[in-house]
Amino acid sequence: MLITTRFAPSPTGCLHIGSIRTALYAWLFARSNKGKFILRIEDTDVKRSTQSSISEIIDGLKWLGLNWDEGPYFQSDKIGYYKDIINFMIKSGLAYKCYCTSRRLDILRKKQLLTGKKPKYDRKCRDLLKSSGDLEYVVRFRNPISGTVSFFDEIRGEILFNNEELDDVIIQRTNGIPTYNFCAVIDDNDMNITHVIRGEDHINNTPRQINLFRSLGFNVPIYAHVSMILDINGKKLSKRKEVVSILEYKSRGYLPESLLNYLLRLGWAYGNQEIFSINDMIKLFTLKGINRSPSRFDVGKLLWLNRFYIKNVSKCSIVEHLKYQFDKNNINYSNGPDLIELIQLVGTRYNTLQDMVNCSRYFYDNHIILNADAAKKYLVKSSIVILEYIYNKILHLDKWSLEELLTMIHVSVVELNMNFSVISMPIRVAITGNTISPSIHIVIYGVGKLRVLSRINAALIYINKN
Ligand code: GLU
């Protein structure tokens, strides 16, 4: 049997970290069993589905490297096909048209609530003998009235429902469009999905879907329902407080490796191991290792992992992600050291690539932004002698190398008879606009001779003016 899993998002919002964790588990399960992973976009809810959400799903999965073997399939392409099956189900008595108005259903629901009953459709139209002409209708599945439906969840074990508790689920809306519960069953069958790995919010849909599978004579897949991700205090993640969109993490300078590693460990464990390469993940992943209790999202831990990966992934891979960050910040990265060289110059001790770019922009921008406090403290009359001295030294330097520049700085300490920091700070502020940077010879080297000279000049003009 070819293990086949799918990721079946509804494109109605951002690509949420919870959905991506589920996608990762489904992807890993397929990969670790040499199976197939399918991408299916569940876009039958025309009003809520958006093109931007579809692009976000595709971009997010690509960025993370969660590649799919088939798809993306779009359910909206298959409406006619679904409707043919629904018509067949009506003809063969597996489904029926329900003409109840939403007003009637509303009153029914309120009455049930008032008498302490669980709201449920009373099956008024289930046994209507003839159709009601032109009246609006939905199509409902004729769910078994008695007995039970149970399944073994790979994460949670045996789960059992009484059919009596289940509604006759709507499979086609009044606008003629089939619903999620129906389309998911048809597609899971057509795509030979062996394992449905999805969020626990779908547990209640599962018995309805199993009944649908059985009524159509289909094989029922194996289910695994993944728990929710909560915030650090155990409350529902809120979009206002936490970043929940995968692409927002990309934009903030996280590496895909960090997110994958973090999301994997958030709800799945292999002893105490913290760091997992993609190959480790594929080798070690099992559904049984998924925790059934909800996980708590800890952005501090994610930052720690990101710092780890920035230090440890290959420079070439950092360069690819850095290009995106530079473009996003409108910095022309060809206007300065090449990015591999930049990493050598500034090092990799950053929490995010966004931090790295923020700390490197003076290598590329034509004009620096002077930090007012730094300028006030270091671009002062007593710095003129230092800046003029260094200007001349640099102007007459024959060779542009890190060693040459380091020697030049050492010589200046002796010749000016000043402390190293007394010399380096005004130069640093003149060249970078700020008081924090890598060693001064590195800064001078990376910024380049012409730009260094013109920035020192500008600093001297600034001092004379103020
Ligand atoms: N489209 C559903 C959602 O985004 C997923 C359904 C499923 O995995 O069966 O929640």
Automatic annotation (TrEMBL):
It catalyses: tRNA(Glu) + L-glutamate + ATP = L-glutamyl-tRNA(Glu) + AMP + diphosphate. This is Glutamate--tRNA ligase. GO terms for biological process: glutamyl-tRNA aminoacylation. NCBIfam families: gltX_bact. It is found in: Cytoplasm. Catalyzes the attachment of glutamate to tRNA(Glu) in a two-step reaction: glutamate is first activated by ATP to form Glu-AMP and then transferred to the acceptor end of tRNA(Glu). It comes from Buchnera aphidicola subsp. Melaphis rhois. Binds 1 zinc ion per subunit. Residues 3-304 form the Glutamyl/glutaminyl-tRNA synthetase class Ib catalytic domain. GO terms for cellular component: cytosol. Pfam families: Anticodon_2 (PF19269), tRNA-synt_1c (PF00749). GO terms for molecular function: ATP binding; glutamate-tRNA ligase activity; tRNA binding; zinc ion binding. Its main location: cytoplasm. It comes from the Bacteria. Keywords: Aminoacyl-tRNA synthetase, ATP-binding, Cytoplasm, Ligase, Metal-binding, Nucleotide-binding, Protein biosynthesis, Zinc. ATP binds at K239. A motif ('KMSKS' region) lies at residues 236-240.
